Amino acid sequence: xxxxxxxxxxxxxxxxxxxxxxxxxxxxxxxxxxxxxxxxxxxxxxxxxxxxxxxxxxxxxxxxxxxxxxxxxxxxxxxxxxxxxxxxxxxxxxxxxxxxxxxxxxxxxxxxxxxxxxxxxxxxxxxxxxxxxxxxxxxxxxxxxxxxxxxxxxxxxxxxxxxxxxxxxxxxxxxxxxxxxxxxxxxxxxxxxxxxxxxxxxxxxxxxxxxxxxxxxx
Amino acid sequence: xxxxxxxxxxxxxxxxxxxxxxxxxxxxxxxxxxxxxxxxxxxxxxxxxxxxxxxxxxxxxxxxxxxxxxxxxxxxxxxxxxxxxxxxxxxxxxxxxxxxxxxxxxxxxxxxxxxxxxxxxxxxxxxxxxxxxxxxxxxxxxxxx
Lengths: 218, 145
Description:
CATH class of chain A: Alpha Beta
Number of strands of chain B: 2
Order of helices and strands of chain A: HEEHEHHHHHEEH
Largest interface: A-B, 16 and 15 residues
Distance between the termini of chain A: 59 Å
Number of domains of chain B: 1
Number of helices of chain B: 5
Structural class of chain B: mainly alpha
Strand order of the largest sheet of chain A: 1-3-2-4-5
Largest sheet of chain B: 2 strands, antiparallel
Strand content of chain B: under 5%
Mean pLDDT of chain A: 90
Strand order of the largest sheet of chain B: 1-2
Low-confidence stretches of chain B: 1-6
CATH architecture of chain B: Up-down Bundle
Number of domains of chain A: 1
Oligomer: heterodimer
Shape of chain A: globular
CATH class of chain B: Mainly Alpha
Radius of gyration of chain A: 20 Å
Helix content of chain B: 55-70%
Order of helices and strands of chain B: HHHHEEH
Low-confidence stretches of chain A: none
CATH topology of chain B: Bromodomain-like
């Protein structure tokens, strides 16, 4: 071998090792996450978790999200499209993972709005106005208050309710569950306990479509 | 160009070993941040600034063997030694936490990964920078130019 071949072989081996290690690492991580998600005491969903769709749906799509996360905002529309494409077969469960600083206030506002039966309206509003209150990953929770009346909520009541310890308990439990499941980024999707690690809209759609097909084929 | 033919094979091999160490460290750091998704702290970033260019400069110096690469590579490696030494001492608690330059984001004194129980990221970085600096210094002394 001449010098050039030696360097090409060495560089190629390093790159090959990198690709192989990445593949093995992701596979192991996926196995670990599924093991926790599919255990009998799975932290994937709690009694209190906000859910949308028929209770007897055989496919459960769990989304860990952050109201200040821009990708979550983009994916909220995708998720609606996906749910609409499988009417009655998929139930969406939303879990909080407010990894951005200040986003925990948004979660408390969402939970307070939920007490008024306005969870989805408030979430849609938050996403719609996200560029204003959370531009460039710097959430400024104070900016959301001016928009909240548009969701049809009693803002004064929300200001009082976000102090409630039970709301904080929900937030803390969701964060603890996210940690237990190994959620590192948002949005993190689980389809019947299978984590979506190779992230992307097409990947989410194919994972969900495959699960629906498997559950409703017979 | 005629000089090259007179260079002993060992000089080329030593420079190649330097590049191999640096290329391995570069891919390793990318694996930790991009695949394992551990965000680099500010001191890690400074070490990357000294490490990544070495991967390119040393490779250029190999074809054809160009001794002057030592002039450009050694200062980078030495800066890397200083930074990773500081980072290692910070993690060991020899430099107090309050002296840590980063307050927001990822803490430089937290040990988020340790191979074999002792080789944390700055220790690995210190190892690679020291080895490369040592080899380059040897090449400089042995008259590769």
